[in-house]
Design a protein that fits this description.
The structure holds two protein chains of two kinds.
Chain A lengths: L1 E10 L2 E11 L4 E6 L5 H8 L7 E6 L2 E2 L5 H8 L2 E4 L11 H12 L4 H14 L15 H13 L5 E5 L7 H18 L2 E5 L3 H7 L2 E6 L2 E7 H6 L3 H9 L10
Parallel strand pairs in A: 3-8, 3-9, 6-7, 7-8
Antiparallel strand pairs in A: 1-2, 1-4, 4-5, 9-10
Helix pairs in contact in A: 3-4, 3-5, 4-5
Chain B lengths: L1 H18 L4 H16 L3 H22 L9 H40 L2 H8 L3 H39 L4 H10 L3 H27 L4 H31 L1
Helix pairs in contact in B: 1-6, 2-6, 3-4, 3-6, 4-6, 4-7, 4-8, 4-9, 6-8, 8-9
The chains are: A alpha/beta, B mainly alpha.
C-alpha cells in the first residue's frame, strides 16, 4: 500500500502543491489527472524518491521513503517500475539490452535465462522479435512498450506510468491502455498512471486523484468522479476531448 | 552566491563518487569503454597536436637563437624541456578539454534531459557510480599515457622539423635534449596530466549530470564544461608550477 501524507513541494518560491494526501491500496490502478504543469509528474517522482518534498511523507508498506538510507532506498526502488514520458530508453544499446539491463546487474541469471525472460517480456507487450532493433528505429508506441517491458522485467510490485499515451495516435493510445490493464490484471501490480487523457482514465483506472490549484482537489472512484459536482473537476472533464455524459438523474 | 552553490554541488558529486569508487562491479564495463573513448580515441589528435607543437617550437627557437653565442644543440635542450615540463601536458590538456570534456558533458546532459539518469536511479542503480566514477577514473588513468604520447611526438616533431629545415641536425638536437634531461621533469609532466585529467572529466561530469532545459540546456552545459575545463587547466598549471618547481 502507498500512503501519501501531507506532501508539499515547491521549486524555489514556486509552490507546486501543498498538503497532498491519499492512499493507494494494493492491486488498485489510480490515475492522477490535472492540467499541464500542475505537478503530476513531480508527484510521481516523489513516489520512489526521485524527488524529495519540502514536507510530508510517502509511506510504502509502512516505510517512509524519505527516511531510508541510500542503500535501503535503492532496494526499495526495485519494487517500482517506471514508464517515463519519453520512455527513457538507453540509446547506446539495443532494445533487447535495454530490457535485459536490470537483469544483468541485479540478478544472477544465466544468459539463457535472461534471453527467455526478455523474450517473455517482449511477448507481453506484443513486440515479439523486436529485440534486435536499435531504440532509435522504434516508433513512439513501440518505445513506450519497450519502456513497459523494461519496467516489469524485475517483477515490481508497483508500476508508475508518466503520461503513457501522450504524443500517440488514438489507436496506439488504446493499445497502450489495454496494455496497462493487461499488466495490472496478469501481474497483479498496483499501478499509478499520470495522465490528462480522460479516455485513458475511464478505460484503465479504478480511482482518480485530481490535482488543481496547487492542491489535491478531488480523490475517489471513477464512478464517483462521473457523479461529482466539484466545479473544477467538472470543468476539467468537460474541457477534455472526451466528453463524459453524466446522468444527473 | 550561484558560484558557491555550484562549488558545493560539485564537491558533493565528487564526495558521492569517492564513496562509491569501491563498487567496481557496477562500473567495470563502463570503465573499459571509457578507457577506449578517453584514451585510445584521443591518440590521433594528440599525435597531431604534439608533433606540430614540437616542430613549430623548434623552428621558432632556432629563429630566436640565430646567433653564434650559443651552440646549436641548445635548441634541442630548450625544446625538449619545454615539451616535457609544460607543452605536452598543457596543450594536450586544452585539446582534451574540448574533445573529452565536450563529449562527457553532452553524453550525460542528454541522459539527464531525456530522463535516462532518472531511469537508472529508479531501477536501483547509483547513477554517480555508474556514470561519473568510470569517466573520472578514465581521465586520471589515460591522461598520463596521452601526455607521454604528446611528449614523444613533440620531440619527434622537433627533430624532424630541425632536420628538414636544415637548421639543426637530429644528432645535435638529441645532444642538447639529453644534456638537460631530468627524469623529474617527466614526473612533473605526468603529475600535471593526472591533475588535468581529473579536473577536465570531473567538471564535464558535473556540468552534464546537472544539465537541465532540453537541447539548449545540454548546449549550455557543454559550452560551460569546455570553457571551465580550459580555465582550470591553466589555473592548476600555474598553481602546480608555483608549488612544485
Amino acid at each position: 500500500m502507498i500512503e501519501i501524507k501531507n506532501l508539499t513541494k515547491s521549486f524555489g518560491r514556486n509552490l507546486i502543491w501543498k498538503d497532498v494526501s491519499f492512499k493507494i491500496e494494493d492491486g488498485e490502478t489510480v490515475a492522477v489527472i490535472g492540467k499541464s504543469g500542475c505537478g503530476k509528474s513531480v508527484l510521481l517522482k516523489h513516489l520512489n524518491a526521485l524527488l524529495y518534498p519540502d514536507s510530508g511523507k510517502v509511506i510504502i508498506d509502512g516505510q517512509d521513503m524519505f527516511c531510508l538510507s541510500y542503500s535501503e532506498l535503492r532496494k526499495m526502488r526495485q519494487r517500482f517500475g517506471i514508464l517515463f514520458q519519453g520512455a527513457a530508453l538507453f540509446d547506446s544499446i539495443s532494445t533487447f539490452e535495454n530490457i535485459a539491463f536490470p537483469l544483468r546487474y541485479f540478478t544472477d541469471q544465466s544468459e539463457e535465462e535472461i534471453r527467455e525472460n526478455v523474450n517473455r517480456a517482449l511477448e507481453m507487450v506484443n513486440l515479439e522479435g523486436a529485440g534486435d532493433k536499435s531504440t532509435s528505429s522504434l516508433s513512439g508506441g513501440m518505445r513506450k512498450r519497450v519502456g513497459v517491458a523494461r519496467a516489469i522485467i524485475l517483477k515490481p510490485q508497483y508500476l508508475l506510468y508518466d503520461e503513457p499515451t501522450s504524443g500517440l495516435d488514438p489507436q496506439t493510445s488504446d493499445e497502450i491502455n489495454e496494455l496497462i490493464v493487461h499488466m495490472a490484471d496478469s501481474l497483479d501490480i498496483t499501478s499509478i498512471v499520470i495522465t490528462h487523457d480522460m479516455h485513458s482514465v475511464l478505460n484503465i483506472a479504478e480511482k482518480v486523484a485530481f490535482l488543481n490549484n496547487q492542491q489535491l482537489c478531488w480523490f475517489g472512484t471513477v464512478e464517483d468522479m462521473q457523479e461529482s459536482d466539484q466545479p473544477d473537476l467538472v470543468e476539467f472533464i468537460t474541457a477534455s476531448e472526451y466528453q463524459i455524459k453524466k446522468d444527473k438523474n | 552566491m550561484k558560484s558557491i552553490k555550484q562549488f558545493g554541488q560539485y564537491s558533493l558529486l565528487l564526495y558521492q563518487a569517492l564513496r562509491s569508487v569501491l563498487e567496481f562491479s557496477t562500473y567495470r564495463k563502463n570503465l573499459f569503454s571509457e578507457f577506449v573513448k578517453v584514451g585510445y580515441e584521443s591518440i590521433p589528435i594528440i599525435i597531431l597536436t604534439g608533433f606540430f607543437t614540437g616542430a613549430v617550437l623548434t623552428l621558432q627557437t632556432a629563429y630566436q637563437l640565430d646567433t653564434d653565442l650559443y651552440p646549436v644543440s641548445i635548441v634541442g635542450s630548450i625544446v625538449g624541456q619545454s615539451i616535457l615540463i609544460e607543452l605536452a601536458a598543457v596543450i594536450g590538456g586544452l585539446v582534451l578539454a574540448g574533445k573529452v570534456g565536450a563529449r562527457i558533458s553532452t553524453e550525460l546532459g542528454t541522459m539527464r534531459v531525456s530522463e535516462q539518469i532518472d531511469a537508472l536511479e529508479s531501477m536501483g542503480f547509483n547513477s554517480v557510480t555508474f556514470l561519473v566514477v568510470p569517466r573520472v577514473l578514465a581521465g586520471i588513468c589515460m591522461f598520463p599515457i596521452l601526455y607521454i604520447t604528446a611528449a614523444s611526438m613533440g620531440i619527434t616533431g622537433g627533430i624532424i622539423a630541425g632536420a628538414l629545415d636544415g637548421i639543426l641536425p637530429s644528432a645535435e638536437f638529441m645532444i642538447g635534449a639529453r644534456a638537460f634531461f631530468y627524469p623529474e621533469d617527466v614526473v612533473f609532466g605526468m603529475l600535471k596530466s593526472i591533475v588535468f585529467g581529473f579536473v577536465i572529466t570531473s567538471i564535464a561530469c558535473y556540468k552534464g549530470y546537472y544539465a537541465f532545459g532540453g537541447a539548449e540546456g545540454v548546449g549550455n552545459a557543454t559550452t560551460q564544461a569546455t570553457v571551465l575545463g580550459c580555465i582550470f587547466v591553466i589555473l592548476t598549471d600555474f598553481i602546480l608550477a608555483v608549488v612544485l618547481l
